[in-house]
Structure formats: C-alpha cells, structure tokens
Amino acid sequence: MKFFIDTANLSEIEEAAALGILDGVTTNPSLMAKEGITGEKNILNHYKKICELVDGDVSAEVIATDFDGIIKEGETLAELHEQIVVKVPMIKNGLKAIHYFSQNGIRTNCTLVFSASQALLAAKAGATYVSPFVGRLDDISADGLQLIEDIREIYGNYEFMTEILAASVRHPMHIHQCALIGADVVTTPLAVISALLNHPLTDIGLEKFLNDYKKGNL
Ligand code: E4P
Which residues does the Swiss-Prot or TrEMBL record annotate as the active site (predicted)? Predict the structure, then answer.
C-alpha cells in the first residue's frame, strides 16, 4: 500500500519523506490556502517545490468547473512536472475532462468521491486514481470504510486499473482497515502517519531495556 501525505506544508512533506515511507503527496485548494499560498504563479511554484521534495505522484487540483477551464488548467499543471497528477472533482464536466486527459496521456485523480457509483464512473472514464473520502462520510454517520470495501469489490469484478486512493483518512485504524481491504493508497496528515509508530508497550519495553543496560554498566 502506498502512503501519500495530505498537506501543502513543505516541512511536513520533508519530515515524512525522511521517514522513508512516503510515496506521494495530495493537496487541495483548502490545504494550499492554509499555507498562505495564493495567486496562480505562487501556486504553480509551490507545486514544483513539492515535486522536488518527494519521489512520487503529487496531486494538484483544478479550480475551474467548466470543461474548457478544467482542460486548460489541467494541461498547465501537467506540464509543470512529470510527477503531477491532475486532481479533478467528480462532476459532469470533471468526468468528461478525466476521459479527455486519459486519452491524452495526462494522469488524473478523481476527487470528492462519496459513493461506489461515482467511483465506477471515474474508473470507466479512465481516472488514474479515485479518491473516496472516508472521514467525511464518517462525519455524517455513514460508513467510509464500507465505501472503500465496495469500490475494491467492484474494481476487482471488472479489473479496472484505477487505483483506490483512500482520502480524508483521519486515524491509524483507518489506515489499518484500508490495508486489510486492499486500498492501493492512503493519504493522511503527518500526525496520523506519526501516530502509527506509537505503542505504549514499545515505550515501556525500551525504557526497561535502557535501564537494565545502565544497571549492568555502572
Ligand atoms: C483528499 O485528497 C483530500 O485532500 C483530503 O484527504 C480531505 O481530507 P479532510 O476530509 O480531512 O479535509
């Protein structure tokens, strides 16, 4: 399973990359705004910086919602760097654009996916990745992980090549369950990746080992 970090923060990306487990980055307009990155030129420069920090795919989201606008923005983003994957929302024009991009060698991540039928459409249109939002479904008392399971089954039934990128992943258990289900990728903030490391028995065990070493070497 690939691990992507869901942030536009350069130091967080660097920290995750240094762990040796980072396979890519996802961003969205909210995450870019959180870092204070505004204006087309700055946004494009920021994507380039992100690409230099990680050896893997970097999702960059279009803002346009009309077909021509999505194509124009997507082509500009894709030309920026070979690691860029154009993130396109699951709307009618988005679906058409995903199909266009897939015919023209531009990789895509279909975002804001909340149902298995939307994921089916994304795969049929030729999306490289589909991003079902686990946490946002949980937020409204729906079952986000069940959606990942359903998409896995549907894609398996028809051997779709679209990769399932579990997004809006908020807890270590989300990652654990996504791995059991067979999601291809999870994207999550650094704090959740770091939380995977922790176990109280590891800390207690290490403390005892170090204390015993000190006692034996007094
Ligand atoms: C997906 O790529 C989104 O950027 C992200 O995972 C959304 O997460 P959130 O629901 O925690 O904002």
Answer: 87 (schiff-base intermediate with substrate)
